[in-house]
Amino acid sequence: MKRRIRRFSVLQTSWVAAVILFCVMMVFMIPMGLIFTLLGKSGLIPGGFPGFGGTFFFILPFFYGIIGFIMTAISCLVYNLIAGWTGGIELEFDEFPTAPADSGL
């Protein structure tokens, strides 16, 4: 069975992309921020990390989320425009039978 993506909802798609980017960046940036903060205060690195304090790594996920929202919105708008001319991306799916739902009573 073939299906086409004719249009993306700009705000919904951008919101989802921004939240995903924010969460992924939080997973990486919080540990990095803690490590860089501890290394800078430990005296192991002379002068610490100028411009890369702990708060930088906590602010960066918000920045990525905002930029991700904007870039996804622009991408969706461009896709919607081009899909109007070309018909959109065509996907092919296989259908397979599903097991009947068990009532479990």
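Above is the first protein from milestone M3; the second protein from the same milestone is given next.
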Amino acid sequence: MVVAKNSLPYLAQRAEEVFQQRELAREIKAQYAVINRIAEDMQHAIMQVRMLPVGAVFQRFGRLIRDLSKKLGKEVTWSSRARTPRPTRTSSSPCPTR
């Protein structure tokens, strides 16, 4: 989506310079602004979801592993460490643009 979004300014410039379609170029630029805002909102929402703690998911593994080891007659050791979410380089930097 980011790649398609970033091609719109080029298309607007081309519409104006090559085809002398100034009004079409303005419309493309206006739609680019709308799509850019939506893409930024989506990126922000995705980053917020990536920062949610997943401890509740991993807490359930203990019981699952214990039940499976009992059923299979195997001895298993399970340990998990609680961690708080922290931003990584990829989750704290915006998507690259041209």
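Note on the second protein: Residues 22-50 form the longest helix (29 residues).
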